[in-house]
Structure formats: structure tokens, C-alpha cells
Amino acid sequence: MPSISNVPSSLTLRRPHPHTQSGTLSATSRRFTAAVMFSALCSLVLAVPAAAHADRPATSAPSPHLVTITIPARHGEIPAGWLPYPGPPRTAVLLPAGYDQTKRYPLVLNLGGLGGDYAQAAFGPNLRINAIVVTPEPYDGWYADWWNHGKRGGPAWESYFLDDVIPGILARYPILAQRRFHAVVGISMGGLGAPFLGGRLPGFFGSVATLSGFVDPQFFGFITGEATGLISSGLTGSPTNLYDVYGPPNGFYATGHNPTRLVMNLKQTRVFESTGTGVPSNVGLTNNPADVPAGSALEGLIIHPMNDDFHHAAEAAGIDLTFQAHRGGHDAPDFSQEIAAWLAWGPFKPVVDHSDAWTNDTVASHGRLWDVGYRFAKPPTKVVRFHKTGDLLTISAAGSAVTITTPVCTVRTKTPAVLHLCIK
Fold first, then answer.
1. N or C end of the chain: which has fewer CB within 10 A?
2. What does the pLDDT look like over 44-78, one tens digit per residue?
3. Based on C-alpha coordinates, what's the Rg of the chain?
């Protein structure tokens, strides 16, 4: 299986600080940065859809079987008009060769990139992995419940994935129960979604993989924040608001959706991170030469610096991270190399199944952290930290009361709070 080696990048755009405020850059620097980053980010739309098939040479052995199912947004998380087809959101499910409904299998949640639907993001049937691989509809939603002037929804992709997709798959397919057998992987925009959703549901996912991921949406946030809203609004035909997705680029809601600022949420999770440097690779030049200039610029100027930030933050937090930087750009041949390296790394190796000591930061209105469920009376007005040690749970100020549930009791409290939980 192809390996990925570390090589220096000659295209990395350096900046004073990963979360620089716009006022610290000169007007000339801001105009240059805006032009470069906006042009490169727009090319993301064209670069991703054909990315993730990871085809291997055909063999005489039985092949996996690709099927399409629908998973309705039961609570209206995805409004009409957000999908490129009629009816409820669709999901591609790759069933392993020799699939047997009486057996249980590992699960891979595969998250697609910007500019493509579930079918374009799905792994092809030549992918050889003994697991059920699920590719839900990602349609340019950035895996977030959109800020939308503080309404936090319309669309609510984050809630759709966590509240509808995962429960729907578990109800429909025979999935192994242990956490080690639940992996989430994503490319580009999906590489943002994987560590973010993995951190939203840490007791479920044992491994997270981000491949050429958009892992720091606050990287030059005054440009990327506007571009995410503009691009997604343009692709979907919805009214344009530059800050619809995350709100103000340095605000609490953007921070609460930034994997680089939320690395502590992955403390008990195995993480694989891969990025190109923007230096063209042999595989890119050979198989996709027309896309090399745009793909190399995007990877070198945006994706690689973002991944450097994520890598350093994860190392500082003591995350179990495997980081690989390699020659290559934001294009299908290089993505295929990254998929091969992720498979060689192994998404289903042992991890802890239960933790009594953890920290989780969130801006979500509800969720589940290991064996603790939470639901705020009103959406939080700041990033909220949950910290658990044994039966002691501390909750930082949220601007709202919260209801906490465990397997044996329910408690409602104001925040901030310190609770002694009723546990088994």
C-alpha cells in the first residue's frame, strides 16, 4: 500500500498567528491574501467531487456492493431546496464483499467534500475493507448547524448527521458495538467534518481521519468565513449572507466549530492526519496534470498551513495523532494516496471503550459525551466546557440552564455548575 513521507513545502503562506484579526494586516497584505485565498478556495468546488474512489486493481474475488438508501431529516434539519434532487437526503452504503446480515461489521462514516453530493463522494466498489462504509449527503453544508443570524439551523447538517444518520444506520445495519470499530474519515470539507463530528460524539468514534482537511475555518477567518458562506449560498441557490455558516469569523460560534480549537475533544481517540505540501507529486503530474496548478496552490497556501496548526494543537494536547505530510495537491490522485495511507494506518485498532475522565468543548444545544447526555434550555452564548473526573462533572457558563442525563438519573441545573453524577 502506498506510503506517505514528510517533505517540506515551498508554497506555504505564513502568517503572524493562526487566528489573526483583520486589523493586524496591512491593507496591501489583506488584498493580496483575500485574492489568493478566495481564488484557491473557490477552486475547492471543482477539485473535490471526483476525489474519493480509492480504486484498486480488479481481482477475481467478490466485490463490495454499493447501494443507495434515504435517511429522512426527521426534525426538519434540512429544508426543502437544499438538496440537488427531490425527496429526503440520500446516503450511499458500501457493503463488504460477501456481506452477511447475520454477522456484525465495523463502520466507516465517510464525509464528502464541497461541491459534490453523496454519490460523487462515495467510495467505489474496488475499495477493499471489511466494513460497512456509509457516505451521507454532505451537500455543501460544512457539517454545521448554520449560524443563520443566530437561528442555528436552516440547514442543520450537524444535527442531521448525529441525530438522524448515525441512529438510522445503527438501526438498519449490523454494526459492531465496540468503539474501536467506529471510524469517521473525510477529505477536504469532509476533513473538517471528521474531527468535528468525532469530537461531538467521542464515546462512539474510536478513530478519526482528516485527509487534506479544511481543519481550521478560522485560518484568516475574515476571508475564509466569508468564502464559506458565499460559496455554499451560490452552489445551493440560497440567499447570500457571508457569515451564515459560522457567524462572525472570530466569534464563539466559529470557534465552537473549529477542529483546531477543539482538539481536546479527541483526547481518547486515535487520529490520522494527512496533507499535501503543494509541491506537485509524481502521481498528480502523471494522472491529473490539468488540475495540478490549482490543486497545488490550494493545498500549499491553505490546506497545509491549516493542518500544521491542527497538528501542533493536537501534539500540545497530547492527542494520539499520526501526522503525514507529503508532496501533492488538492486533487483526486493525491487523495487516493492519502486514502491508501489511512487504510495502512488501520482505522480499527484498539482504543478505550469507556472513559471516566474527559474534557469536551461545544456550542451545541444538545448532545452526548460518553455516558452523559446534555440539553440546554436555550442555545449556549459561548463555548461551553464539560469536564468529567469520576462522578464529578463541571460545566462552564453557557448563558442557559442545562439538563444532564446519565443511564440512571436526570438533573437540571443552572450554569456554571459542579455536579456529583448519579452513576452505576
1. C
2. 444 444 444 444 444 556 788 999 999 999 999 99
3. 21
